[in-house]
Amino acid sequence: MFETLSERLGGVFDRLTKQGALSEDDVRTALREVRVALLEADVSLPVARQFIKAVEKKATGASVTKSVTPGQQVVKIVHDELIAVLAGEGDPGSLRIDTPPAPILMVGLQGGGKTTTTAKLAKRLKERQNKKVLMASLDVNRPAAMEQLAILGTQIGVDTLPIVKGEDPVSIAKRAKTQAGLGGYDVYMLDTAGRLSIDEELMAQVEAVRDVVTPRETLLVVDGLTGQDAVHTAENFDTRIGISGVVLTRMDGDGRGGAALSMRAITGKPIRFVGLGEKMDALETFEPDRVAGRILG
Ligand code: GDP
Q1: Contact, 192 vs 169, CB < 8 A?
Q2: What is the per-residue pLDDT for 162?
Q3: Is the CB of 115 within 6 Å of ligand 1?
Q4: Sign of the C-alpha dihedral, residues 118, 287, 234, 188?
Q5: I need a labelling partner for 217 at 20 to 30 A (CA). Which of 76, 81, 107, 285 fits?
Q6: Has 275 been labeled as part of a binding site?
Q7: d(CA 129, CA 146)
């Protein structure tokens, strides 16, 4: 995640910090290079523009250029601005699941990593917060997806709602809700069906499920490798369903990370977790300060 960007920015800032005295023009030239690096990392144009504008405003003042360590000050301003562009409110990894049984709705396109992430998150809640979790698959069109969740459940020691053939998604959601209450579960997670692209049927189905359970969290799971498309998908789901956060998957394969940098600025929704592999432990919270530190090396 972010290797390419980190390398590019490292080069720019190395030169800047080694230079000693800096004129406003030096700073502007460096920021132009930062802008190119951001665009090459697939950060959306308006976000890159706004970012550079904000940094330039703070970094070209006399207090910076006339300071003893101007280069380092510019790096610090970029660091703080990165955090500002990434951060949502509160702790990204803490989910609103205080009143049991708390429903978590998992939404997204097919192949984005929804089922895998549902299981990863369930495992995390079980192991780190000692929560009793029930998972249910609503993907009635793909029996293999329902089986997949059941298999993952067995693997991680988390219960799944028994599969009943012929049931529709809303009925499954109702059954999960009842079962979660009766069974003393803290959390129940609904793995909704995905499709290859956003269509009316998918959205109507997710909406109907949402209205039945009133989720405490609605997490969009989206493939980070798809870059700007991931951001558009999030905009679409948020407009129609309302999401409380994003999980970006396959970030283990993404050296650019542009989707991660544009997501919050464009959709207004924070990235809560990132998927970093296929294994059940390969899920990390997305901490803006740590991410900014990683990008700036
Ligand atoms: P769904 O259709 O959205 O439910 O997608 P799946 O959960 O079935 O995931 C599709 C494929 O992506 C599977 O082979 C997963 O193992 C893989 N996958 C999911 N998340 C990640 C991730 O963070 N990194 C990598 N490398 N693969 C992932």
Answers
A1: yes
A2: 97
A3: yes
A4: positive
A5: 81
A6: no
A7: 26
pTM: 0.94
Q: What is the rounded distance in angstroms from the CA atom of residue 63 to the CA atom of residue 88?
A: 29
Of the candidates 30, 39, 136, the residue with the CA atom closest to the CA atom of residue 74: 30
Q: Report CA(116)–ligand 1 centroid distance (Å).
A: 6
Distances (CA, A) of 285 to 3, 97, 144, 246: 18, 16, 29, 11
Residue 255 has pLDDT above 90, yes or no: no
Neighbours of 196 (CB within 10 A): 9
pLDDT recorded at residue 100: 96
Atom number, ligand 1, closest to the C-alpha of residue 251: 23
What local confidence, expressed as pLDDT, does residue 3 receive? Answer: 87
As a whole number, mean pLDDT of residues 129-154 equals 96
**E-strand stretches of 154-289:** 159-160, 187-191, 217-223, 245-249, 271-275, 283-285
Backbone angles phi, psi at 283, to 5 degrees: -140, 125
Is the C-beta atom of 253 inside 6 A of ligand 1? yes
Q: From CA 32, how far away is CA 144, in angstroms rounded?
A: 49
Sorted by sequence, the CB contacts under 8 Å of residue 18 that are 6+ apart come out as 71
Side chain identity, residue 271: I
Say which residue, 13 or 254, is predicted with more confidence.
Answer: 13
